[in-house]
Amino acid sequence: MTNKTIPVTQPFLPELSEFVPYLEQIWDNRWLTNNGPFHQELEAKLAEYLGVEHVSLFNNATIALITALQAMRIHGEVITTPYSFVATSHSIMWNGLEPVFVDIDPTTFNIDPAKIEAAITPRTTAIMPVHCYSNPCDVEAIQKIADNYGLKVIYDAAHAFGVKYKGESLLKWGDLSILSFHATKVFNTFEGGAIISPDAKTKQRIDRLKNFGIADELTVTAPGINGKMSEINAAFGLVQLKHIDDAMAQRQAVDSRYRRELAEVTGITLYQHDINANSNFSYFPILVEAEYPLSRDELYEKLKANGILSRRYFYPIISNMPMYRGVASADTAHLPLANALAEKVLCLPIFNELTVEQQQQVIALIKGN
User: Fold this and answer.
1) Beta bridge mates, 168
2) Are the beta carbons of 191 and 227 closer than 8 angstroms?
3) Overall fold of domain 244-367
4) Nearest CA-CA partner of 368 in 313, 303, 308
5) Gene3D superfamilies per the record (predicted)?
6) Residue 249: how many CA atoms within 13 Å on its side-chain side?
7) How far apart are CA 261 and CA 266, in angstroms?
8) What secondary structure does DSSP assign to 280-349, as a single string?
């Protein structure tokens, strides 16, 4: 660490010497973007690592979400969760669609399938769930609802890099899954993202949409966008991919230490991983209950005063932000569990280079030492 502050997360950076040969190749071949050799290589290697067929790289996950909705030709209403980062619902609004918020499951923090069906109207065309903190949504229940009503399912899988559910890639569920490779994520390309699609035809449409809708030198087939990942970002991703398993193992050690040390702290509830899935240990949320001596915000300020940055993630929830307050489904009475959770959650520092000594500082402050 270069200073005394302990951040809530910190991007994993390989040795610079590993990255330099890739930069030299980019300089030598002068292919900087637009489906260059490193871009193609990263797509292939990510598909292999993640256990999926088709990966389309993007410059960021928000553009990927916007493009995914366009690729599936979604219109009208999209049912989604209020407990997420704003990019989820922003992508719906950017496409001129209406987000419809439904409440969450208080155990998984994911969208509650039992609430989805009641929110379906004749204008509903899609569901956009989020795999929160890398915990899988109830994918079977969501798919059954989608099949019954003829809806598309587009998963915001920003937290779900490398997660398998019942032995298979979680990213295979739904019509599309979107990953984030932002610097705060377990696997990052500085900025970046990807869409996982089930077949070559869908990938071709997505790849055209992220390049202005260009089909060939003379033909533009759709009002696409510039969502291309550069060669520098792709090269960094290739270097990162070599170390991802070690990085996640180090994060797992941090996760295990928190669980061991905080399990018996009165008023602190630990988030539980789905037993049918592996976690990538992207976040470590705790819930600060009424029995704890401090409120959630008081604990947040106490940690901050001692140079430890935690995060109230997600607070406020999307539906309470000014641009969504006019949406009928954003009414707080309609979303009691998401609102209650947002008042209690606190994500503690977790990253692969967090030292035992630094983590013990966090633990000691929570214990009141």
Assistant:
1) 165
2) no
3) Aspartate Aminotransferase, domain 1 (3.90.1150)
4) 303
5) Type I PLP-dependent aspartate aminotransferase-like (Major domain)
6) 4
7) 12
8) -----EEEE-TTSSS-HHHHHHHHHHTTB--B-TT-S-GGGSGGGTTSGGG-GGG-HHHHHHHTTEEEPP
Which tokens in the block code for residue 268? Answer: 């602190």
Which amino acid belongs to residue 113?
P
Structure tokens at 345: 């959650």
Please list the pLDDT of the chain residue by residue as tens digits (369 residues): 335 799 999 988 899 999 999 999 999 999 999 999 999 999 999 999 999 999 999 999 999 999 999 999 999 999 999 999 999 999 999 999 999 999 999 999 999 999 999 999 999 999 999 999 999 999 999 999 999 999 999 999 999 999 999 999 999 999 999 999 999 999 999 999 999 999 999 999 999 999 999 999 999 999 999 999 999 999 999 999 999 999 999 999 999 999 999 999 999 999 999 999 999 999 999 999 999 999 999 999 999 999 999 999 999 999 999 999 899 999 999 999 999 999 999 999 999 999 999 999 999 999 997
Q: How many helices (H) and strands (E) does the chain have?
A: 12, 14
CA dihedral 141, 144, 150, 154 (to 10 degrees): 40
Spelled out in words, what is the top-level CATH class assigned to the domain 16-241?
alpha beta
β-pairing verdict for 168-169 and 176-180: unpaired
Question: CA torsion sign, 71 to 76 to 78 to 84?
Answer: positive
Q: What is the dihedral of CA 129, 45, 34, 213, to 10 degrees?
A: -40
Residue whose C-alpha is closest to residue 199's, from 52, 34, 51, 40: 52
> Which among 82, 109, 139 is positioned nearest to 272, based on CA atoms?
109
Going from N- to C-terminal start, the domains of the chain cover 16-241, 244-367
Distance CA 203, CA 276 (A): 29
Name the one residue in this structure whose structure tokens are 């309470």.
Answer: 320
Q: What is the pTM of this model?
A: 0.97
- Amino acid identity of residue 224, one-letter, is G
